[in-house]
Amino acid sequence: MKSHNTTAVVIFTILLLCINVTAGPGSSGIWIQPKSETIFKTSFESKQTSELPVGYKLHQEISSQRGKVISGEISKPNQALKYLIPFKDMGNRRLTLSFFARSPERVRCAIWITQEGEKRKSAFQIDKLPKEWKRFQTSYVVPTDAPGVIELVAPSSFGSLPGQAFLDDIKVVADPETGPWMEDPEDFPALCSDKTNGLWLAVTTRDAAGPQLRLYNIKGEKRTLSFTFKPDGITGIGTPDIVEWSKGCVITLPIERSERWEIACIYYNHNAQKTDAVHYLSAGGSANILSALDIRNDQALVVWQGNNEFPRRIYAASVNQNHVSKIQAVSTKNISSSNPDVIFLDDGKAFAAWDSFDGENVNIHGCYYENGSWNNVLQLTSDPRIERHVHLAAGINRTGMHNLWMTWQAQSFKKHLINKFDEQRVVVAKINENNKLCFLNSVFKELAGKAPNSLYMHPRILQTTDDRLILTARHSLDAHKGWESLAWQTGEQGLSSPITLWKEQGRWRPIPMAICDGKVVAACQRDNLPRNWGIETGKSEDWTSEVVLVPVTETERKQSTNSMTSAMPMHQPFSLSSQEICSQMPPTDFSLINHVQKYSAGLPRQRQMHNGSELTLYWGDMHEHSDLSVCQRSQNPPVDDLWANQRDIEMLDFTAITDHGYNMDHPQWAYSSERVRAHFDSNRFISLLGEEWTSDHVHYDPPRSVKRYGHHNLIYQDAFFPKYYDSRDEPAQSPTEVWNDIGDAEFISIPHQLADTGNNPTDWTHHDEHHQPLAEIFQQRESYEYLGAPRQSKAATPFKGHFLQDAWAMGLIIGIIASPDHGGSKGKAGVWAEDLSRESLFKAFHARHTFGTSGAKMSLFVSSVKQIMGDKTTLPKGDIPFTITACADRPIAKVVIIRNNEEIYTAEPNSRDVNIGWTDKAAPKDRTLWYYVRIHRDDEELAWSSPIWFFTSKAEMYATKEHALNLTHLHPHGPPADDPGPSVNWRKKLKTKPGKH
Questions:
Q1: What is the pLDDT of residue 704?
Q2: What span, in angstroms and rounded, lies between the C-alpha atoms of 937 and 856?
C-alpha cells in the first residue's frame, strides 16, 4: 500500500503547545474529585413515631436484621405518602439519594425534586417495589442555590394498586460542584504514556464542523491540545487507539469518506508539532472498522475488522513511517469475527485476539505473529455465554517469566432474548505456554464468580512493573442510568475491593490506563445524558460529554473519598504461582445453539415467482434498541454488538435500530448514523437508519383516558439523513406534521404497541398510505392483532379501537410486520423483495409485500391470481381464489384465512411444507373486502400475512384517505382524537377478562 504525505492529503489544525484548554475537570490534567458531603442520613434507630412525616410508623424488623424501619400504607387509588428531605445552597451540585425499600403489594415509588423558581421534576420512578428489601439510588444535579425538597414518595397508588411500603437507611450525599463542561462533547478516550512527554490522550468529537479526532498532551495538571485530525471529506469516525512512539505517539482511527470506511494510521511527531505520516489501510469492501494497534521498535502492528468478505474477518498490517506491509486476513474464513486487540510480547512476538461466532457460540480466538507471518488461529474460550471485547496485556514477572494476560466480558441473556442481558461478567486469565487459560483464583471469584445480576462491561487490564495487575471496567448504576467507572488491583491477599474512579455516570466506554512517572492513570468518560425518561420537553441544546483523567490507586488518589472501600497499597505484589488455577465459568442455562434452533435462524432462503418476476424472502427487524435508549439501558447492548447479533446470530438480512428520539442529541444522532453505515454490507446485510418517535408526554386539560398518537418508528432510506425528531420538543408535533416536515426524503413510519396500556395506544386518525404502509402486529409484549387474539399482549387495552383489525375496519390500508422492541428475537419481519438493497426493500415496504412472525422464521406467501399480500385490486365478478404457500422447520399445525376480521377457513396440515389452494365462493360483492392469513406452528409460533384488499370500484380503491371514524362500536369511550373522558387506570381494568368492555 502506498504511503501518503500528510500535508498533501490531510487537512488538520495544529495548535501551539502553549495554548491550554479551559473548561471543567475534563480540561485539566490528572484530576482528583473532591470530597463528598453527607447532608442527610437516618437509619431510624433513634427515631420516634412522632418525629416522622404524617402517615408513617416505626417497626422493628427482626427477621431481616434491619432493626428499626418505617412503613406507610394507603387504601385508595390516587393516594401517596411523602418523606421530605429539604436542602439549600446546592446549585450545580449533584445530590445522590439512596434508600432501602420493600412492599408486600408491590406499590409504586417515585422521587421528585421541588425547588423554588423551578418546576417540580421527576428524578426516579419504581413502578413496583420488590417484596424483599432492595437498595435503590438516584442522582440529580441541582440547577440553582434556591431552597428545595427531595420528595421520596412511597407508597403511591397513582398508576398502581394501594398497599404498604417499608423504608430504611435513607441517605443523601452532595457531590462538590465540578465546574463547567468542555465546550465540545468528547467521547471514546484512548490513552498512552510517553517517557519524555508525559501522557497522550486522544478523544473523538462531533460538533457543527463534523467528526474529528483531538490529541492532547498531559503533564501533571496541564492538558494541552496538540492537534486536530479532520481529513477532507470525513463523514464518520470510529474509536481511536494510541501507543507511544519514539518521537511522540501513533494513533489508529477508523474514518469514513465517500461512503467507505478505512483505518487512518497517524504518526504524530511531538518535537516537530506535526504528523510525520498518515497511512490509510483498507482490506477492501466498504467497512474497515474497530481497529487496535501496538508498536515495537517503531514498527506498528494494526488489526481491524473488515467486510471485504462475508462473514466479516479480522485483518492486519505492519506499518512504520514509510511503509505499509501487505494486508493479511488473520481470522478464520467463513466465521464472523469482531473487536480485535493486539500486543507485542517481550520475546519479540505479537499476539492478537478477537471474538468470533462459529454458528454455535461467540468465543474468544487468538493468533501469534512471528517473523512477519501469522500462525494458526487458536480457540481460547468455549463457554456457552457470548464472550466479547477482549483486551490484552503483557509483561515480565518477578521470576523473569513472560506473561500474556487477557480480560473480556461474558454475557448471557434472558430466556432467548439475545439483545437483553441477564448477566455480564468480567473474566481475567493468563494464557500459559500451552495456550490454555489460567485464572487467578481471587480475581475469578470477585468478578467472574459474582452473582449473575452484576452487569460489568468493557474491561481493560494493565500489568505494572512491580508485578501487579490493574483492571478497569464499567458497572451499570441502574436500569435507566449510565455506568460508573471502577478499578481493581491485585495484591498478596488477592483482589482489592473496587475503587470508584469517577462518581458521575458515563456511557459504557472502556477506561484505558497508562503508567506515567510510576503512577497508574485512567481516562474516564462522563456525561449528563438523561438518567430516566421523566423528561418534560426535548432538549433545545445538546447534552455534553467529556473525558477526565484520574489516578487509579489509593496512594495516588490522596485519600480521595471516591472509593467505595479502601484499596490495597501499591507496593504489595501478588504471587502468581500461588493463585494460578485452571477453571471454568459458573454454569448457565443460556444456550445460543438452542436460541438459533428455536427461532429457526438458519431457515433456507425462499423464493417465489410473481407476475413473471422472482421475489426473494428477506428477514429483518425494524424495531430494536441499543443502550442509548434510557428505558432499558443497562440490559440493551451497545450498537456495534447489536448489529453483530442481528447480522450473525439472528442471520437477518436487514435491521433498523430505533433508539428513542428523546434520547438523541446532534452528536448521538451523528454517531448512530455512522454506525449504521459502518455495518452496511452491500447485497448481504442492509443496515437502516431509524428512530422511535413517541408521544407519551402529551398533557391534556381536561384529562382523557386515551392520549394521542402512540409510538412510531421512523425508518429512513438515506443513511445520511441529517435530522432526528424528538416528540418532547415544543411545540409538540402530530405524526402528520412530522411526516410533512421530513418532506421529500424517502421514509416509512411504523406504529407499534398498537393497543397498549403501558404506553399510548395508536391514534389511527393519523394515517398516510405511503408514509405509514406497515404496522407492527407483534413484539416482545406479544400480539395486537385484535381483542382476544392468540398470544394477545397482557398489557393490551380491554376495549376495541386500537388493534390492527380495528384499523382495517376503519378503512385503513396498512400491512403487517413484526419486530421485537427491547430484547430481540420475539418478532421478525419477512419481506418479499426483488433484491437485497435499500431501494428494493423500501419498494417492498410501500407495496406491503410483507408479513410478521412471533419470532421464528416461517415463510409465508399469499396470492390471489395476480395479486399478492399487500396488494389492492377490484372485486372479480366470480369467485376469489387464493394460494397459501408456507414452510417452517417444525410442523405447521394450523392455517387460518380471515376475511373482514372474521375467520372463514381453517386447515390443519401438520406439515413443514404447506401449499393450500382455497376459493371463496361466497364473497360479498357490495363492500370492500380484505383477506389475510395466520399460520400456527405446532409450538404456537405464529405468522401473519399482510391483507389483500378487494374494492367495489377503482374510485373506491384510490380513496384511501377516507376513514370510517363514525364506527362508534369500535370506540366505546369516543373516537381516540376526541375522547374527553377522565384518566382511566387501564392496568387495573385489565383484571377483567378480554371482551367484557
A1: 54
A2: 9
Dist. CA 859–CA 600, nearest whole Å: 11
Cell numbers found for residue 384: 456457552
Which pTM was predicted?
A: 0.88
**Which residues lie closer than 8 Å to 40 by C-beta, 6 or more apart?**
85, 87, 170, 171, 172
Rounded mean pLDDT of the chain? 86
Closest C-alpha to 511, from 569, 553, 550, 560 = 550
Look at residues 701, 711, 692 and name the one whose alpha carbon lies nearest to residue 751: 711
R_g (Cα) of the chain, nearest Å: 30
Sign, Cα dihedral of 201, 202, 206, 212: positive
| 892 sits in which H/E element | strand 880-899
DSSP letter at 578 equals: H
Contact 330, 356 (CB under 8 A): no
How many helices (H) and strands (E) would you count in the chain?
Answer: 12, 62
Q: Which three cell numbers stand for residue 204?
A: 473523538
CB 471 within 8 A of CB 460: yes
DSSP per-residue codes, 846-882: HHT-EEEESSS--EEEEEETTEETT-EEEPPSS-EEE
Cell of 517: 512517572
Provide mean pLDDT across the span 112-130: 87
Give the chain's end-to-end CA distance (angstroms, integer). 71
Pair 86, 149: CB distance under 8 Å: yes
C-alpha span between 67 and 53 (Å, rounded): 19
- Residues 654/672, Cβ–Cβ less than 8 Å: no
Tell me the C-alpha distance between 735 and 881, whole Å.
38
Question: Residue 468: CB partners within 8 Å, gap ≥ 6?
Answer: 489, 490, 491, 570, 573, 574
Residue type, 659: D
**Rounded distance, CA 521 to CA 489, Å?**
13
Q: How far apart are the C-alpha atoms of 352 and 304, rounded to whole Å?
A: 10
Per residue in 257-268, pLDDT (tens digit) is 999 999 999 999
For 436-440, 606-610, 696-700, 817-821, which range has the lowest pLDDT when averaged over its residues?
A: 696-700
Structure confidence at residue 582 (pLDDT):
57
Q: Supply the pLDDT for residue 708.
A: 66
